[in-house]
Amino acid sequence: MTLWLLTLATAYLLGSIPFGYLLVRLLRKEDVRAVGSGNIGATNVARAGGTSLGLLTLLCDALKGYLSVFLTTHIAPPAAHGPSTLAVCAAVAAVTGHIFPVWLRFRGGKGIATALGVFLALTPMVALAATGVFAFVVAITRYVSLGSVLAAFSIPLFALLLQQQRSNALLAGLSAIAMLTVAKHQANIRRLLRGTENRLGSKKSAAAAEDGKARTTPKRAEP
């Protein structure tokens, strides 16, 4: 029990490191939560600090998810049926940490990049297939949110189709992570249905304004 508590707490704390917030604060002297949608994820960081900073945030968020699972596999190696239950639970903890980070009063990102990292560590082929879905949808529609939601929904399906060694714990963990990330896209889904969602490369629009009204905007840091 102690091993489980320590492992899951470590995965949660690693996942809760708010790289998007920290990078914008350190390099731009701004609070990313006061920009655009107010999200600390890569898409909004790119809006606040440019494409390079957004990509760096994406990489860091994915890496913390990957490391959470990778480190756990040294404690609980994969079994014949696939990743250990502890590794699966660590994956869920890492994504939960990103979405509900203790450092930012439990108001974090939407979990897509961190989920990608844990999926790459747990089931690389499934992760690559879901990434293909994301890239295809975004290329066709230019809606990052739609690509993220459909990629999340595809994860359990791809696990059934592509993962030869799988357990009930793995399927449950993948489904839980997918549902967590989709739930964080509620506002995006509503805007998609109304036709007011931002497209990739578009400037601030009604979607960002709507997000700004729905949250309490923190004060910007003094330069």
List the main descriptive attributes of the protein structure presented here.
single chain; 0% strand; mainly alpha; 223 residues
Q: Could you walk me through the main structural features you see in this protein, from its secondary elements to its overall organization?
A:
The chain is an all-alpha fold. The chain has one domain. The protein has eleven helices and no strands. The radius of gyration is 17 Å and the shape is globular.
- What is the number of strand segments? 0
Mean pLDDT: 89
Sequence stretches where pLDDT stays below 50 over 5 or more residues? 205-209, 212-223
Count of DSSP H/I helices: 11
Distance between the termini: 47 Å
Radius of gyration, in angstroms, nearest whole number: 17 Å
Helical content (DSSP H or I, runs of 4+): 55-70%
Largest pleated sheet: none
Q: What would you call the structural class?
A: mainly alpha
The quaternary structure here is single chain
Strand content: under 5%
Write down the secondary-structure element order. Answer: HHHHHHHHHHH
Number of domains: 1
Instruction: Give the overall silhouette.
Output: globular
